[in-house]
Specification:
This is methylated-DNA--[protein]-cysteine S-methyltransferase. It catalyses: a 6-O-methyl-2'-deoxyguanosine in DNA + L-cysteinyl-[protein] = S-methyl-L-cysteinyl-[protein] + a 2'-deoxyguanosine in DNA; a 4-O-methyl-thymidine in DNA + L-cysteinyl-[protein] = a thymidine in DNA + S-methyl-L-cysteinyl-[protein]. Belongs to the MGMT family. It comes from Lentilactobacillus parafarraginis F0439. The structure is a single chain. The mean pLDDT is about 90. The chain is globular. It is built from five helices and two strands. The chain has a two-stranded parallel ribbon with strand order 1-2. Helix 3 crosses helix 4 (about 70-80). It is mainly alpha-helical and about 140 residues long. The protein has one domain: Winged helix-like DNA-binding domain superfamily/Winged helix DNA-binding domain (Arc Repressor Mutant, subunit A, Orthogonal Bundle), CATH 1.10.10.
Length: about 140
């Protein structure tokens, strides 16, 4: 059942993320279903990976102190139940390919591009129509 009190916080943070006002999420995550310690370490490491930057599966394995467990780390990344919130889309292959993504490779590519694209600067004041030169100096402007 939908409950605004529960989902409102999540929606607010997603809106802020896609409005480029937020680079990471603070919403509470229910990790009780994850009992594998390696998977928990991978989720923690994914949350530390900076916005707009990628990491390889090998680097991620090294970051959690398991440099030889690249396949196990890749499997843990694939099991991440918190897409976008725990940014597994920032993990790429060592050869430069973006790799797989449970949300689809097009989505992964779009998220990576989204994070690399700077926020367009918005003018503080909307464009104001200026008077024509012929109107300058006339009273009533």
């Amino acid at each position: 059942m939908y409950d605004e009190n529960v989902t409102g916080l999540y929606l607010d943070e997603f809106n802020e993320f896609f409005d480029k006002k937020r680079q990471s999420f603070d919403v509470p995550l229910d990790l009780s279903g994850i009992t594998n310690q390696l998977e928990l370490k991978v989720i923690d490491a994914l949350r530390e990976n900076p916005y707009g930057e990628t990491v390889t599966y090998k680097q991620l394995a090294e970051n959690i102190g398991k440099p030889k467990a690249i396949r196990a780390v890749a499997s843990a990344v694939a099991k991440n139940p918190f897409l976008i919130v725990v940014p597994c889309h920032r993990v790429v292959k060592a050869n430069g390919e973006i790799g797989e993504y449970r949300g689809g490779t097009d989505t992964k590519k779009a998220l990576l591009e989204f994070e690399k694209t700077p926020l367009e600067k918005q003018p503080l004041i909307k464009k104001i129509p200026l008077p024509k030169l012929s109107q300058l100096g006339r009273p009533g402007l």
